[in-house]
Amino acid sequence: MKGEMTMHQHALRRSFLGRLGQTALGVVSWGYTPWAGAASGRAMLATPWPTQADPAPYWVSEKLDGVRALWDGQTLRFRSGRTLLAPAWFTAQWPAQALDGELWMGHQTFDRVSAAVRRSLPDETEWRSLRYMVFDAPDATSTFTERLAHIQRLLGPSEPGRLGAWVQSVAQFRVADAAELTQHLSRVLRAGGEGLVLHHADALWQAGRSETLRKFKSVQDEEARVVAHLPGKGRLQGRLGALLVEMPSGQRFALGSGLTDADREKPPRVGAWVSYRYRDRTPSGLPRFASYWRERPPE
Hints:
The protein is of the alpha+beta class. The chain has six helices and 14 strands. It has two domains: about 35-215, DNA ligase/mRNA capping enzyme (D-amino Acid Aminotransferase, Chain A, domain 1, 2-Layer Sandwich), CATH 3.30.470; about 220-295, CATH 2.40.50.140. The chain has helices spanning about 5-20, 110-115, 125, 145-155, 180-190, 260-265; strands spanning about 45-50, 60-65, 65-70, 75-80, 100-105, 130-135, 165-170, 195-200, 210-215, 220-230, 240-245, 250-255, 275-280, 290-295. The strands form three sheets. A five-stranded mixed beta sheet has the order 4-3-5-6-7. The longest helix has 14 residues, at about 5-20. The relative contact order is 0.15.
């Protein structure tokens, strides 16, 4: 897209200008039509940020290390589509429109959030510590800038209140160049955060991995499915040596670095999804210097 709008998007924008005028973001909003894919748990997923790319056409926000959750207008769901058992009061004031966001307690709290949202009987105290941080509103026809304007009208500024204390919008901002983007990343990392997310301003919503939705981190991470346990050798004789994992592309590799003694004694089961960190990729697409990070809890 490279920052340019299609003729169809320009026509939509002119129509909205005539009817509604400018919003605080300098874009135009219209009657919102939620994207039906949200009900199935289909999510738009980020790809790594190319460090030499120009960030000017993108909206930037902090990447929150919580649990992804999709609101389809009636039900809160995991990314897999399975219903997330939230207390009724948590979503009581939410709109009958699709939202995408992260359940979050703050920096360095992933394990607490993951445990809280997966209990068969929700713990009221835990849920009162959670926030649903909204960063998108899936819609088949609008650009991200227009979806962002809709979110801000719906939820107000990036603080709780309009739809209850439990839901708020994620702060979005623009940067001029790569140097400013890197400065923001450094500030987030110093504060205990994970990284940044970049949404292309003119991109339409789409399910699956997208090059218009990027994640910028000091160390990249991805997920792969465990397909076998490989036996250890030498000091690891008789124990797990590595996990044989399969990437979404179908490529497989052995993941042994980063496994603790406890992981080797009780490894992720075959079929489980795990997260790994890596430095970059080979020309064939395999990760270089991959290191096991954590198991993704089942959804």
